[in-house]
Structures are given as structure tokens and as C-alpha cells.
Specification:
Helix content of chain A: 25-40%
Radius of gyration of chain A: 21 Å
Largest sheet of chain A: 5 strands, mixed, barrel
Oligomer: homodimer
Number of helices of chain A: 11
Structural class of chain A: alpha/beta
Largest interface: A-B, 32 and 32 residues
Strand content of chain A: 25-35%
Shape of chain A: globular
Strand order of the largest sheet of chain A: 6-9-7-8-10
Chain lengths: 353, 353
């Protein structure tokens, strides 16, 4: 492991689509949807175990979740758990942590990852990460991962790669032609056929000097804020200063603020069983189905005359389901959801206060 | 209240048809299916509040449930909680408690009731009880209550009354023509049309000398056992003697052992919103339905696109149900049931270990 390698886990999400498994009090990244004994943020940290030293791992989260982060990842230095006083999307988040890391190590080579995705093939994931880090250690470009699409998904953004020529020093890496917003079904089907479109997994790899320069050029209203805070990083005054100035940042994604504008932007098409677990349906794809297409996560789940159901009830001693076809059933923390799978996009609305 | 009035609550049932709300560890009588804050045995005791003195109240239960009975009914004298060492149906149960009460008060006028039924019109119930007690205080007969049937139920036994002449001293009370086992649908429909058939609610009222004599005549193999234990009733030796001799009793219902054979048997047709809560469906009849025929018991239950469901989840902070028609959903003590209502007779089998 290179001591210049830093890992940033973005853990500020409040995801409500996975109710009742996730709630604003305990969003998806802090729960264990697979029933494996580790939460998503723990799994995220785990898969970088021999890619990045724990001492170089950072988490950016909201004030409300800082304690949960510390409980679930006790080996991460407390000073590396950065607290956003408010939600401002990913560009201010990445800017803050980049300046913060730069103050500590101007040679840092950084991976930024969401905290609530899953990866099934961790070995391939680590290989991809090492190749990516080697690339950004040398090249003054921002690298993003493009997930090989397996279906015309309309819930993800797409990255169009220029597959005509791979990079000289990294044969698996290509220049980005364009970033595409979440498409409709027809467009998604067109993307799939063209083979040069990949799902945008929201994972970035860059040298700290590259990202800081890119932010200075493309997002000066953000970079100027974190530039002026240089004297306080790592001091007792940092949090107060962040609380005062962070809210001034515009709320904007890193994709929109930087990636879509910058020239030196690259994509690494990869395939390691990735899912953002954005929906109950996407969880089902990752788990083993019985002969009737049911997925069950819980200690004692009994299905009779049922098919195509997702049953997720880790806290229930016993679940008996009879005569249910095509439903999500989820119990967590004394809340229960039963919903037709084709209506699952309504969950956060149905469960809202 | 007459100090000779005694109440016997039979609480030995292990009902499994209400899983997961009831389990062998905590059967139906000890839970609160209506969500009213009182368990069924507490409600049973409550509705005799000014009919029978608490000091004259008895509970017959199994060894395993004696502690729960004491916790839930702390005002009943501990010596009045009788422990059956094994299950022998209602005839030995009633024989034991009758001899036990006779040893204390040979003038006792006794009501015997199941512990897990509900009554909606408690005022009418009390009136019926007072009339019944006045009858058995004078008449040397066993009185049973006949519930006015509201549907051709096949889950209950029926009592055929001789409606040609009411008793001289109690105009609402009639002689019994016959006891009928649970009928099939055609027979049940015939019963309903004939107007002289009533549901057998398993509630008996008798003078202690009447029941003791009836048991001596019709069930000598049972009466001889409790007759020989006369010296130990109310002493420190009672439980050991019961543990030794009670298991010798045949397992037989009081209906079969006595009621169907005795001559002086009477029925009091009554109507006070009674249900034995034998099934989830029978619970639904007792609770208020929404416009779509749903019944919901729980602090925050939200139903969308759903009809004819019974949702029972007192321990869940929030339940969201979408797109479900004709199901029972029940959560209790970290166990969850989802079952088509027309399959609910399979519940105890589906949930069995």
C-alpha cells in the first residue's frame, strides 16, 4: 500500500427509498441489508482494506451521523470524520475533504466513494482500484469508474466513453466523451446497444493537486471558500469555521460542477458486481433466489405459495408468508412495509411523516 | 353482590390459531388482540367486576401459565390459581375447581367461563349473569348460555333449545333439547333458519351441589378422584396430591361428560356481542372496518390500494401496506405473519416448529 493513498467515504445520504430498513435517523449506509453482519459503510471500508491504509481513510458525513460513523468504523481517526453542517451535494463535500487532505499531504492520491453501494467481486474491485491509483498518481486527470451495464436501467446516469483509443499507460482506461443524465427507457436501450455507455457509479480517483486545480478552474465559488480556510484545517477551530462557511457553498454535484466541464476526464470500464442498492429490486439482484424467484433475508423466513417476493426481516425471529406474489416485505426497527414490487418507487412517499 | 357467587376462569388453552399474536409460551388469553390495553383474561375478569367478589374468583390453568395469571390478575388470591399438571379438557378442570370451592363454601353458586372470549355489550352481559345466578341459586339445574347466532358458523357447537315453554321462574331460560357438534355448512344454515339453535359459548352457571352431584352420577371416574382429595384442599399438600391424581382423569369435555347426559340442563339465549376469537376473521367482525373493509390494530397503520385485510401490529411503530387484498398481516413479539384470509386455517401448521 502506498502511504499517499487516501480514501474518502461520502456518508451524508439520507436515503428514504429503503424504508423501513433505512430511515433519516439511520440511513442505508449504516444498516446491513444483505444480512451479512456488516453494514454497507463497513463493507465499503472493508473492501479497501489492503488498498488504502486505515490512517488515511476519511469519512464526510453530516453532524447527525458522525457518532454512528465512529461507532461503526472505530478504527478511523476521529479527526478524519468530517462533519458537514448542511447538505450541499457532492461538489462541496469533495472540495472540503480535498483541501483538508492537501493540508496534511500534498502528494495524496485520492479515491472518493459512496458509502452505500455494494460490490460482489471484491478481488476484481481491488485490482481495478490499484490500476486506477497507479494511473492518477502519474496522470493529471480525474478518473471515474464506468460500470458495465447489464440492463437498460433508467435509475442511473451514464458515461459515454471514447473507446477508439485506450490511454497509453493504462490500456483499460479511456477518455470520457460525455456524461448523460438518467435516460428514459428508449434512450437507455439505445445506450446498451452502443456498447460505449457505462453506468456512473459515483466513484472518483484523482491526485489531490488535480482535483484542487479543477475546482479552482470550474467551481471558484466553492474552491475560494475552502482555500481561505487553509489556516484552520486540523486545528480546534476547523469545525466552527466549516459551520460558518460551508453553508455558503452552492448545492451542486461534482459531476455537474467539474466532471462535465473538465477536459482531462477519464473512465475505467469495469465489472465487479456493483449495485447502488437504490431500490429493493436492486437488492434482489444481488441475493440468491429460491426456485420461485423469492429472496429472503432473515433468520427464519418461510414462504408458501409465493413467488417473486423480497422478504427482508433480520430482526424477526420467524416470518411466515403465504400466497404473496411480487411483493416487497421488509421489517426493521419496529416498522413494517408490504408493497407491490411494481409500486416500490412510491415507498418513500407512502412512509413519510 | 352475593358472597356465595364464585367465578371460575378456565385459562389452560394453548391456542395456536392466532400465531404470531399467540404462542404456546403466551397463548391468546394473555394477550391484547383488540389493542385496548387489557389482555383477554383481564377483560374476562373485568366484566365480572360487580357480579362476583374478587375474593371468590378462581383461575384454573396449567403450571406453565400460573405466573402469567398472577402477573395479569394480581388481585386474585394466589391460592385461587389452580394448577393442572397436564391437559385433560374441561370436565376434570370443572370437577377439580368445584370440589375445591365446595370445601370452602358448600353454598357456592358458580359461573365457569373461558378466559379468551370477548363480549362487546358488557352491561347486557352482566344483566344476563345476574339472572342466571338467581336461577341456579334456586334451581337444581345446570345452566348454559346460548349465543344468538348471526351467521351459519361451522366453527362452533350448537345448543338446541326447547322454546315451547320458558321456565316458570325465569322467562328467558329454556330446557335444552340437544347439544350439537360443530356442523357442516348445510346443517348450520338449517339451524339458523329454525331459530331454536344457539351457539355454545362454553359458559356454565350452576350451584356447587348441583355440579358435584351431576359429576358423581355421570362421570364417577372423575368425581371419585376429587372426592378422595377432600382432606387436602386448601392445605400445603394439595398441589402434590393434584399432581399425583389429576393425570388419572380421562380427557373429556364437560359438555360430553355431563351436559349431554344430564336431565336438568337449561339454556339462556342471549346476545351481547360475543366472540370466541377463534380465528383472525372473528377478530375482524369485532373491530371497526374502514371503507374498504380493512381492520387495523396498531399505533400507525397506513393502508393504500388495499381491501378486506386484517392488520394487527401493536408493537410496530409504523406499518405501510400497499396493494394487498384479503390478507391477514400480524406482527407480534418479533414474529410476522402474512397469509391469505381464506387460508388462515393453515396458520398453526405453517408456523409450527
Amino acid at each position: 500500500m502506498d502511504n499517499n493513498t487516501h480514501l474518502v467515504i461520502m456518508a451524508g445520504g439520507i436515503g428514504s427509498r429503503f424504508w423501513p430498513m433505512s430511515t433519516p435517523h439511520k440511513p442505508k449506509q449504516f444498516i446491513d441489508p444483505l444480512g451479512c453482519g456488516r453494514t454497507l459503510i463497513q463493507l465499503t471500508c472493508d473492501r479497501f482494506a489492503d488498498v488504502c491504509p486505515m490512517a488515511n481513510t476519511w469519512v464526510v458525513t453530516s453532524d447527525a451521523y458522525a457518532d454512528i460513523v465512529h461507532q461503526q468504523l472505530p478504527d478511523i481517526p476521529v479527526s478524519h470524520i468530517l462533519r458537514e453542517p448542511c447538505r450541499r451535494n457532492t461538489a462541496p463535500c469533495i472540495a472540503y475533504v480535498s483541501w483538508r487532505i492537501k493540508a496534511e499531504n500534498p502528494k495524496a492520491n485520492i479515491i472518493v466513494t459512496p458509502s452505500d453501494h455494494i460490490v460482489m467481486d471484491v478481488q476484481e474491485f481491488k485490482r481495478v482500484m490499484r490500476v486506477a491509483l497507479a494511473f492518477t498518481a502519474e496522470a493529471d486527470g480525474i478518473l471515474t469508474l464506468g460500470m458495465q451495464p447489464t440492463r437498460p436501467e433508467t435509475g442511473y446516469g451514464y458515461i459515454q466513453a471514447d473507446l477508439s483509443a485506450a490511454c497509453v499507460r493504462a490500456k483499460e482506461i479511456y477518455r470520457v466523451d460525455a456524461f448523460r443524465e438518467k435516460p428514459n427507457v428508449e434512450t437507455a436501450e439505445k445506450y446498451i446497444k452502443q456498447k460505449s455507455y457505462f453506468w456512473n457509479a459515483g466513484i472518483f480517483i484523482f491526485h489531490v493537486s488535480t482535483v484542487v486545480n479543477a475546482l479552482r478552474v470550474y467551481a471558484p465559488e466553492i474552491s475560494s471558500i475552502f482555500e481561505q480556510l487553509l489556516p484552520v484545517y486540523g486545528t480546534a477551530d476547523e469545525q466552527a469555521a466549516i459551520n460558518q462557511h460551508f453553508p455558503k457553498c452552492p448545492s451542486i454535484s461534482f459531476d455537474y460542477a467539474v466532471m462535465e466541464k473538465a477536459d482531462e476526464v477519464f473512465v475505467f470500464p469495469a465489472s465487479f458486481g456493483w449495485s447502488d442498492l437504490g431500490t429493493w429490486g436492486s437488492l434482489q439482484e444481488q441475493l440468491t433466489k429460491d426456485n420461485n424467484g423469492n429472496v429472503a433475508v432473515g433468520p427464519d423466513i418461510r414462504l408458501y405459495d409465493s413467488s417473486d417476493c423480497i422478504i427482508h426481516a433480520l430482526g424477526e425471529k420467524r416470518v411466515v408468508v403465504q400466497g404473496l406474489n411480487g411483493y416487497v416485505v421488509a421489517e426493521h426497527d419496529n416498522s413494517l412495509l408490504i408493497c407491490r414490487r411494481d409500486q416500490e418507487q412510491r415507498i418513500s412517499k407512502l412512509a413519510a411523516d
